[in-house]
Amino acid sequence: MWLIKEGFKEYKIQLASVIDSLHQLTKEIDHKPLIQTVSEIKDHINDPFLFVIVGEVKAGKSSFVNALLGTKEEICKVAASPMTDTIQQIVYGEKTEEININPFLKKITHPVDILKEIAIVDTPGTNTIIDHHQEITERFIPHADLIVFVFEAKNPYRQSSWEFFNYINEAWRKKIIFVLQQKDLMEPSDLRTNIEGVKSQAIKKGIEEPNVFDVSAKMELEERDNSGFEILKSYIQKNITGGKAPFLKLINNASTAQTINLKIGESLKIREEQWKLDQAFRDEIKSTLDHQSLKTEKQIDFLVENLVASYAKITRETDQELSDGLSFITMIKKSFSSMFGTNEGPKEWLQRLTKDFEQRLNISLKDKLQSGVIDIADNIQTMAKLVDSQVKNSPTVLLNSDEIFADIAEKRANILKELQMTFSDFMNNSENFYDKAMLHESENMAPNLAAGSGIAVIGVILATVVNGAVFDITGGILTTIGLLFAGASIGFKRRKILQGYRKEIERGRIQIENEVTDKLKNYTSKIKTRIDSNFAQFDQHLADEGSKIIALGNHREDIDNQLKRIKSNLQIQLN
After folding, report:
1. 219 and 273 share a domain?
2. Same domain assignment for residues 495 and 369
3. For 97-132, what is the HEC assignment?
4. Is residue 422 scored above 80 in pLDDT?
């Protein structure tokens, strides 16, 4: 026995340490009801094995307690009216004494031997009409080691009783026995029917082998035979008292801690699932941006190829016409023809050639630009619209009604709501789609562009900027070529003029290719970055959640392993 006591003391110290760790975990998740519950478990770890008597008002609970304690005194006052009921906590003491803890709770001490191993809480009733009574009764449930569900024998099917049973069984999975009180008011056959009915109901609700006792407190207090208390007391002696209660108490405390830890774990799984969904949602946003950006860059490359191809065709044809027209003989002919007024002279021919060249370039490049810019603008608009749709349809599994992490669900909902509002404002604000550097460089910028809104301005911006860039380049080429042509009155400068022309054409081709590509791709990249920047707060939430979930999961798993080990060792000691 001494070795068992020494082992018991060590197990209690170990369990207290684990419960303290669980208490810290509840603080980490900042769940006030669980913090209070675990704190109370810590405070009551040295208390005796606790019976909590529950049932409807007037089911005979107080009379049952008096009969169970087996004294001639009325330890639990049997109230004439449920209005005066209080919760009564009965513990061992050297003398009988009542201590009013608060208006709803009374502690009674009494020198009864069974109270050296157990304590009893007599509750007012599951269907009491007094404010706070059921709430206070529920506060005792986590600390209960045995729930004694007392029914009125003639009607054990009342809804409020079984609803309270559901709370106890589903939320805390406590050991429960059923008592049909006042059996003296029943015919034996009807009593047997109700006993089987309670067993059947309990089995349906998950109790594999329900223990149902039929008793009469009146018969027991009158010391009449067949009260049913002898069978009930034998069950208590065999399964609880006789030295087993302290170990059972620790096992039950460990089980209660496991239940709380399991609750946290179940909600943590949902929280982790939500985090994974949010991470996938965020990855999908990035994938959408990358895909649309790549698609837009291909459109830009295609546009530039078309521009350069059209530019090359026109400049090549002009080169041929210039090469033919600048021959010595042709120039002499043009000079003589102009002298007699029959045809244009070299100067007029060069002016016409320049004008035709400019017109062909403008028409051809403008058509290509308009068509290409529409496709590019569509892709950028699609990028923004797809992200907007994804933001509005992010999947949610962690609900505001979650038992443990409702605050996290609410925080996430607020972040998403703010993201949706921010992104909606972003989409509607045309300034978000400007590129000040690009627009500053373009003198062709429409003065009323700011009147546009949101992504609708993208096409206008691109058309204005790119047109400006291309025609600034071609304008520069034409000016330079015009200067080359200005001094060409005869064909002696043919080679020099052609070399200058071809040099300018090549420079122009490279400039168009580079500047259009750079401007459009830089613009696309900036819009992509601006869209992505809307998710800064959400990204921080994801990072915080990821690290927090890992830390909570590791802490919870460590507690679970320790509780399993302690329970296993206690079971070995008990057996």
Report:
1. no
2. yes
3. EEEEEECCEEEEEECCHHHHCEEEEECCCCCCCCCC
4. yes
